[in-house]
Amino acid sequence: MFYILSTLNITRVELHKIPTDQPMRRPKNPSASTVLWKVFIQHIFQAVAALSLAISIRPPPDQLPKQMESWPVILIKLAIAAILLDTYQYWMHRWMHLNRTLYKYLHSVHHQLTAPYAFGALYNHPLEGLVMDTVGGAVPSLLLDMHPWTSTLFFTLATLKTVDDHCGYSLPWDPFQALFQNNAAYHDKHHWGKGIKYNFSQPFFHFWDIWMGTDFDMAMEKLKPKHYKGSVSSGSDSDEDEKDERFTGNGHANCNGTMHVNSNGTPYMNGNGTYYMNGSRGGSKFNGHFANGNCGTTTPLRRSPRMHASS
């Protein structure tokens, strides 16, 4: 469906295409035909593994319960299973990023697709697919003693959600994206160069990212400049005068300019500033963060990041 949408080039749909800071494919990235072939092999591999596991641990068909579980029981089990699967996949996924060997030989295969699309949702190394998807889905099913039909429903929902998370579109009428904050727009950021160490949660919820500080948007929000009280010190802007005696009284700074944050999270400002300090000597330095546009501060000296501004 998502492939058809992308080929039709419907303006109303393309408006919801998720922007990315990466090209669709780089020279070393796999072609679409390669992705389709390996995903097909992946499905065969996982189907055989799952069937073998089911045969080895499940009772014979004539001993299975003939009556399905009630819908309230099914819904409760599906909700618990989603939490269990998310927990398993978050920590396995994060481990594959933190462990260089696992990332190099296993998980990097999936990240060859810098701009995800639906066909590439399960484009993984076969061993990763077995550990992450087959085992990850089997664990909740076994722990909750799911009826085979409930297990089938759970696997189907998890697979559809995974494909949807890689579709490349943020569609307002998509039920998965409307119900879950962990959606295509959320997971797409994980495939960005700057987001690869964030948004590990998959496929349903993102509570682990929030709890563990790996939510991309929350992490970027912390790096944004904030308007709060800072402090002023005396001395010139030159490196030689870096150890000049600091101003110990109250100071006030008025500035006009545009705030930026570099890759290290250090704020800096392009613009002009006028500084008023009691007992200041030499040039001026401002300790604290600037807000975008106009800003001012009056406060005693406090320990905070120091940055330079033209005066």
UniProtKB/TrEMBL annotation:
Pfam families named among the record's database cross-references: FA_hydroxylase
Keywords: Membrane, Transmembrane, Transmembrane helix
InterPro entries named in the record: Fatty_acid_hydroxylase, Sterol_Desaturase_Related
GO process annotations (BP): lipid biosynthetic process
Cellular-component GO terms for this entry: membrane
Keyword Cytoplasm appears in the UniProt entry: no
Domain named Fatty acid hydroxylase: residues: 79-214
Predominant location: membrane
Localization terms from the record: Membrane
Location of the region described as Disordered in the Swiss-Prot/TrEMBL record: 229-255
Molecular-function GO terms, alphabetical: iron ion binding; oxidoreductase activity
Designated name of the protein: Fatty acid hydroxylase domain-containing protein
UniProt organism field: Synchytrium endobioticum
